[in-house]
Write a structure and sequence with these properties.
The protein has 137 residues and is mostly beta strands. It is 11% helix and 53% strand.
Length: 137
């Protein structure tokens, strides 16, 4: 009986998987941050939503996740998007701000320094919106 159950499950799994390419291809793109909604101060042990606004360049861009680098009490953050390779992408207006939010848990005292990536300057150097948030008692 167990062998029959395993055989049935194996057949179902094999039948449900497709090796055919559905034609959807994409890449990833890190986009610069335009603005941030972040509290002026944190309390130890609390969780706070932090909302990041960025420009969505085309209809083929969709939010995937945040680039999030943690070094001591410094955090570097940037939105990562999927860029779907479609022929019918439309360029969006330069005022098309999109918001994405992540939850931040305060785990240590002192201040947190957030560096939100804002792109590169003419020399290829990364530019950041830097915000320091103190942790209060």
């Amino acid at each position: 009986m167990k062998k029959l159950l395993v055989l049935c499950l194996t057949l179902i799994l094999c039948a449900s998987c497709s090796t055919e390419d559905d034609g959807t291809s994409f890449s990833f793109e890190v986009l610069p941050v335009e603005s941030v909604d972040i509290p002026d101060e944190f309390e130890l042990g609390e969780v706070y939503p932090i909302t990041v606004s960025y420009l969505r360049p085309s209809t083929c861009h969709a939010f995937k996740e945040f680039y999030y680098l943690k070094e001591n009490n410094e955090r570097t953050v940037a939105p990562i998007t999927y860029v779907f390779d479609n022929n019918n992408c439309e360029t969006l207006e330069s005022d098309n701000l999109v918001e994405a939010t992540f939850n931040f848990q305060v785990t240590s005292n002192g201040s947190y320094i957030f560096k939100f990536w804002q792109g590169e300057d003419d020399d290829g150097e990364s530019q950041y919106l830097t915000i320091e948030v103190p942790v209060v008692e």
